[in-house]
Specification:
This protein has three helices and three strands. The protein is of the alpha+beta class and 149 residues long. It has a three-stranded antiparallel sheet. β1 (100-106) and β2 form a beta hairpin.
């Protein structure tokens, strides 16, 4: 009876092999998943912060738009903002809300811009620690409606 010895096919030591190529693929794929997850999570958080900033900006603008020149309105019926008081009221609202922003009056419209920083969770791993979001809101005074008898 003849015995044969089973041999494995081994590549020669001098030739390249595929050893380790799966490891590189897994590392690259894992990094891509982290970036994609970070984009979804942190972009969603930034969008939430933008919506919140927009609400604050609009409410601050409405607060500023309530600062009317009542003397002019009583004499002529014209509705006009008092620019300095409108800006002061809008800034006071921003301070009370804990927001950072600015307020300006052009013509008869007050515009409030709010800036907020979203601190990232996963994108911080890649070196992106904050996302800055801005939102604006505008308001202008409207003439009073007729009194109901």
């Amino acid at each position: 009876m003849r015995h044969t010895r089973a041999t494995r096919n081994r590549p020669d030591e001098g030739t390249a092999t595929d050893e380790g190529s799966v490891t590189v693929f897994v590392v690259v794929l894992f990094a891509a998943f982290i970036m994609f997850g970070g984009l979804i999570l942190d972009a969603g958080g930034a969008l939430t912060d933008k919506i919140s900033a927009m609400g604050v900006a609009q409410e601050a603008a409405r607060t500023g738009a309530q600062q009317l020149d009542l003397t002019l309105f009583r004499q002529t019926g014209t509705v006009r903002l008092l620019p300095d008081q409108a800006v002061t009221a809008a800034r006071a609202y921003l301070a009370q809300a804990g927001a950072t922003g600015s307020a300006t009056v052009v013509d008869n419209t007050i515009t409030v811009a709010v800036t907020a920083d979203h601190h990232t969770q996963l994108l911080g791993i890649l070196g992106l620690d904050t996302l800055t979001v801005t939102a604006t809101g505008s308001a202008h005074p409207a003439p009073p409606t007729e009194a109901v008898p």
